[in-house]
Amino acid sequence: MGVGPLTDPVDQIFTEGINEVIVTTYNNAAPMGIIRKNDSLSMIVFRTSHTAQNIIRNGWIVAHISHDPILFVKTAFEDLSEESFIQELIGNRIIHRLRGIQNWICCNAHIEHTTPDKLFVRLEPIHVNITQVLPIPVHRGLNNIIEATVHATRFILNEDPELARFIRHHGELVLRCGGEQDKRAMRLLYEYVNTAVPGTFL
């Protein structure tokens, strides 16, 4: 299954703009934004990340469609155990995907160009595993968890107080709009940030 123009079912999964998913590479998982633009899929990956190193070495990723707020937070800040992954033969290579997530898309990952800080990666879907599920409405709790997680990963690097303010703002919205799982995820995020930058959230 190729890209450009995208074909069903990939065409029904990724919409124009940034689509937040959990990406696995070799024994690694991290939240990532997959960009759909002009009927192509791509990612921008920081070179210092495990994801970038694995793409350079192996040339594939698996994008998982998940609505689990705790999984988004955990994969942003810690390494999952080896037991969290399933190895599967796709074509002529062994890929690693997350156990317990039924909706996933395996892609070849082609590095288009690089900068000192980033890889610009074009994605070519080669295998799709999608179940028949009921449509899920937009959920403000999960959306704010994702935004807070993005800000938190950047805050840990530069300790910009403006990012801390954004995290608090999204945390307040999670308390107002989220369910218990979202609130647990937000508390976990605060713990990760306080471990890295003590005293940020009291």
Automatic annotation (TrEMBL):
<dbReference type="InterPro" id="IPR012349">
    <property type="entry name" value="Split_barrel_FMN-bd"/>
</dbReference>
<feature type="domain" description="DUF447">
    <location>
        <begin position="139"/>
        <end position="191"/>
    </location>
</feature>
<dbReference type="Pfam" id="PF04289">
    <property type="entry name" value="DUF447_N"/>
</dbReference>
<dbReference type="InterPro" id="IPR016733">
    <property type="entry name" value="UCP018747"/>
</dbReference>
<dbReference type="Pfam" id="PF20766">
    <property type="entry name" value="DUF447_C"/>
</dbReference>
<dbReference type="InterPro" id="IPR049288">
    <property type="entry name" value="DUF447_C"/>
</dbReference>
<dbReference type="InterPro" id="IPR007386">
    <property type="entry name" value="DUF447_N"/>
</dbReference>
<feature type="domain" description="DUF447">
    <location>
        <begin position="19"/>
        <end position="131"/>
    </location>
</feature>
<protein>
    <recommendedName>
        <fullName>DUF447 family protein</fullName>
    </recommendedName>
</protein>
